[in-house]
Amino acid sequence: MHGLSAEVPCVYVVLRETDVTDKPFEVLLVTASPYEAQDYADNGEDLVEKIPMPEGLVAWVRDFALAHHEDEEFKKRRRDKKRIDKVEDGIGDERISQMTDVYRSPSSAKRGRLH
User: Fold this and answer.
1) Which domain holds residue 33?
2) pLDDT at residue 95 above 80?
3) Which residue has the higher pLDDT, 115 or 73?
4) Is 99 domain-assigned?
5) Interval 98-110 mean pLDDT
6) Does residue 37 lie within any of the structural domains?
7) What total of structural domains would you count in the chain?
């Protein structure tokens, strides 16, 4: 529905590179969904071209969308209340063997001062 409401309705052609020299790209997908096209554009491997939709295709896509489209209810995401910034790795973890404080000077370990 979003693509049909644009000033110029478009289809998106997703192209993928090939190893053939006389045919550098192959058509992977043609879609009327701008969201699906954006997903392919975001992966960085495919080329997405925007092409104006012919009138006959506009009518067909509009009929299809009106017959099958269902609005999704907006659900606001809530933040997790758990605080993860107060954890310091390795401090107080009995699985990590420590001779002394984890913040000890490395030079004192070299001199053999730790027992």
Assistant:
1) 10-68
2) no
3) 73
4) no
5) 58
6) yes
7) 1
